[in-house]
Each structure stands twice: as structure tokens, then as C-alpha cells.
Amino acid sequence: MTMLPYLSLAIWVPIVSGLLVLAVHRDRDVAAARWLALVGSVAGFAVTIPLYTHFAPGTAEMQFVEAKEWIPRFNVNYLLGVDGISVMPPSNPFSGRRRSSTAPSGRVSQNATP
Prior knowledge:
This protein has 114 residues and is α+β, with helices and mostly antiparallel strands. The protein has one domain (6-87). 35% of the residues lie in helices and 14% in strands. The protein contains 3 helices and 2 strands. It has helices spanning 6-23, 30-46, 49-53, and strands at 63-71, 76-82. It has a two-stranded antiparallel sheet. β1 (63-71) and β2 form a beta hairpin. 4% of the residues are buried.
């Protein structure tokens, strides 16, 4: 079974959809430009879901590797891959130091020095 080029799609879908939005004359057709931008954003996100769901965190090898010869005369290749750092889960914003939930009262402490 051949794998879809998820990394290339993750790069090129937003670029192509952005160019299509630019091609729509937003002065004349604002609604179409907005819908095209929305569809492009959702499609750009959708092609990255398999990267996250099929990633194997237990290996140190590159995953989803795409390698194509681009300009053979100069030995230039198109090579993409994902390592573990690229798919790290987001950090928890609630871990670490918390702020007080009450606003400062504006009063100065009696022990404060000027």
C-alpha cells in the first residue's frame, strides 16, 4: 500500500488555497473569498490529522519520509520527513505557576518602603 504524501500536502494545500484566495477579487466577491479561505484552512488542517494519528512515538527513525529526485543533474532532491520533535504534544498551559484569581486591591502595604 502506498502512502499519500501527507507532508507535501501539509505544505502545499495552504499555499495553493492562499493563492486561490488571492486570485478571487475580494472587492467584488467577499463571500467567495471568505468561504475559499475557510475551506483551504480546514483542508490544510485535515491533511495533518493522519500525521498525528499514525505517528509512532517509540521509534527514533524519520517517519512519513518523502524522497524524490528533483534536479538530477545537480543532485538536488526533494526530501521531507518527521522526527519526534515535530509531533510533540502541546505543553499543558495549566502546569507551572498559577496567577492569583483576584485582582490587586490597589492598597499599599503598611510595611512597604518608598
